[in-house]
Design a protein that fits this description.
Layout: H1 7-33, H2 36-66, H3 74-98, H4 100-107, H5 112-139, H6 142-165, H7 172-193, H8 208-230, H9 232-240, H10 242-278, H11 282-308, H12 316-319, H13 325-333, H14 340-343, H15 345-351, H16 355-379, H17 387-408, H18 417-432
Helix pairs in contact: 1-6, 1-10, 2-3, 2-5, 2-8, 2-10, 3-5, 4-5, 5-7, 6-7, 8-16, 9-10, 9-16, 10-11, 10-13, 10-15, 15-17, 16-17
Amino acid sequence: MKLTAHLGKISWSLADKVLYVAYGLVQFVQIAALPAEVYGVFTLLVALNTWIMIVSDGSALAGIIQYGVDPAERKRVNLMALIIHTIVVGTAALGIYVMREPLVHVFRVEQFGEVATLLPWYCLLSLPRMFCLKIIYREMRMKDLFVADSIWFGVRTGLTFWLIANDRLHSLSDIVLIDFAGMAASSLATIALTRKDLTFGWSGTISFGKYLRYGVPLAMATALNSAPRQLDVYVIAAFFGVGVVGVYNPAKNLYRFFEQGFDAVTTLLYPAAVRMYSQNRMEDLQVLITKAISVTLIPTIIAVVALELGLSKLIIPILGQKYAAAVDHFNVLAIAALGMPFILMSSVIAAMGRSTIIVRYSAIGLLVAGGVLFVVGQLGQPLLVGLGLVSNTLVVGILCTMHVRKELHFPLRSLGRAFGDLRNVISRTGVKQ
């Protein structure tokens, strides 16, 4: 895959990730305006909705890319994906709502009843966006992705500053209104952008059995892999209260800058890996993945070192002293970024159709993260709660990389390909001077 042939897609993809970074700054404004306890409850709602959508993405929507690359199958694949997507999201949201009272005691969070009541509406608004985005990813229409996310972030940004200007951003209902409005606008936008692709029918040969044999293990993998990233806040709330969640989540928002960067890489890596593997272009796939790891590892190391040396303290004036502990949380979480170049290999394993392997590695990572969080909770050390995510990322990243290396037989030294390229560039620059 030559980068020059995909510069347009890469540029729009990077521009889209800039939107996430920009809205992250808007979130700091929201956080500064809200009490930590209120923001903590809102975090629980967003985390649960996000986790449900991630699980549905694996079970229902990933097949849109995996099997929808064949135009003859698209109507059937779209219909099966929509049916499974609706069932998974609806069952999860309504099930949690019905079980809200017992779950309050399970999570030891009194405000969980509010979260469970709002969740079905949040999922309903999110459902069309998630479905249509997968079609956009399949066609790699990064410009459409940018437009959809611009509307999503733009509506929320406008409402945020309007409510603050009118001194009305104080309660859970205020911040929920912002997110609901943005999600509704984005869902309508994605429907409009993909209206010509929203074709449904039963023509085709892909069976529900084949679709689910691919999707269910992948859903299990995404559920297990995303749990430490999304549902850790429930463990933290149980041990330390929603106030600590409210302080911890700004640190996670900062950490998501790393995640968004790697999501941009995955957006390009996964479809390319699917095509190369299906065409038996193993040498090209080997070059692709070793470059993906080495090219992302260098800037990640530089960024983490700079943050640990004190750069992260620049966010304290933005958030205010009541959220100063968020810096300590972020410094812990930043260590996990060192494992993210290797986490990219999970998408390559998925492209190979080995979703059961991802389940196994994700389960191991979840057990490790859960054990670490339990120990941190027992020790009463709230500033170390980020170690759960750190341990999960490093363990899963190492396991996935070793598996891909075993499949494709590439030498470990090839993971440093970018270091050699960088050294050559520096050498040529020195010669010219």
